[in-house]
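Do me a favour: review this protein, sequence plus structure tokens, and tell me how the chain folds. Record follows.
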Amino acid sequence: MGVDIYERVEIFYKSVKTEKVIIGKSVAGRNLYAVKMGEGAPVGIAQYAIHGREYILARLAFLHFEQGLAKGSCWLIPLANPDGALLSERGLSSVREEKEKKRLLAMNDNKEDFSLWKANLRGVDLNVNFAAYWGKGKKNLRFAGSENYIGEKPFSEPETLALKKFTEKIHPDYTLSYHTKGEEIYWYFYQSMHTCSRDKGLALALSRSTGYPLAYARGSAGGYKDWCIQKLSIPSFTIEAGGEKFPHPLGEAGLKDIMAKNARALYDLSDAIWQEGLL
């Protein structure tokens, strides 16, 4: 059946000669891998594919590692939701226990096609499980399913808790989250006037690098970007990569387009932070 996306990330993790760490485990016990590129400040964290069906973005992380940074260092987390990624890519064959398969089928309206699945293995949408106006998003749900369920409480999931603890340990100067799709950059989450000006300046650098416009995620809350802005008071960005013409989950054509437009995003962001003295 070929190499799945989790195996690709494992191969990448084992092959790179750099500082690296397993920041935690998924619901199913899969490793959450992080690798470091560069040295010194500014320090960033870039996380990819926190939504299952967006697993193609792990391969963008590999490219970013090859491209490097203009200045400083950045921790890359290529696959923030490995269980959801494999469920989207491989379906129920990626799930070990029959009881778990039945529970997932019930959450998926008894459909065996899980290709559009965004959540983790417990049906929690990890990008609405952070403590930043948690539960106040317009699309938030109070029941488990393929998307938008906020969980029982903030950081109820091992994946979000691991990302929280790792972020607090590193205390980065900035973070970047990659999603698909829409070709937009989100940068705002109720910042103060001073930090709003700073963050918009950096977002514009990302816009110049990718060609994507800035946008406001109206009615959205509980995301990793939101939590980083609110809790750590650092610039934090979400890039929705890939055009609307590419259906979920994005395939090779979508990845080619994403890589062409986003290859230098982290490099240019680190350069903007350093050159413009925005921190």
About this structure: The chain has a mean pLDDT of 96. The chain has nine helices and eight strands. The first strand starts at residue 20 and ends at 25.
